[in-house]
Amino acid sequence: xxxxxxxxxxxxxxxxxxxxxQRLWTPHRMAYIKGENKPSxxxxxxxxxxxxxxxMTDEDGLILRRAEHAYAVLNLYPYNGGHLMAVPYRHVADYxxxxxxxxxxxxxxxxxxxxxxxxxSGAHGFNIGLNQGSVAGAGIAAHLHQHVVPRWGGDxxxxxxxxxxxxxxxxxxxxxKMLADAWPVD
Length: 186
Fold this sequence. Notes:
Blueprint: E1 4-6, E2 23-25, H1 30-33, H2 49-52, H3 58-61, E3 63-66, E4 70-74, E5 84-88, H4 100-121, E6 125-130, E7 146-151, H5 158-161, H6 172-182
Antiparallel strand pairs: 1-2, 3-4, 4-5, 5-7, 6-7
Helix pairs in contact: 4-6
């Protein structure tokens, strides 16, 4: 991950006029902007990352915990450090389509995530929620996933509010290990 802050203009190809703005370059976010890892359609075979992740190792898939009917995984494009999701294994789009067992696993993983995040990083609070459908903000609407976003007092400053940029202090692999180690024993 390349992050650099500069007040110098971009001078590639002689383009750029110096101004007083600081710039935080986060080129890794371009993958999200271009829709990388988004399925091409509604079926599991259309490239759903939530269907592919369980076949990976925990480290490669950024999986924190596996339950019988769902798993917890770090978000590749987090709002805050430690942002994770509880995801059913079954490719299902709507919360009302979950079985009772899937609902219990998603709920249990959410509770365990809160304990792990408080233990590992001292989270003060959480935003927890489901975005049902693309019109509700779901980036991958075809496969249900519940977000668990840790929050700390003062974690929203000018960067996300004005600059529409998140500054994350830790690599995802390091965050995964820290949270997996802090995950409560079943």
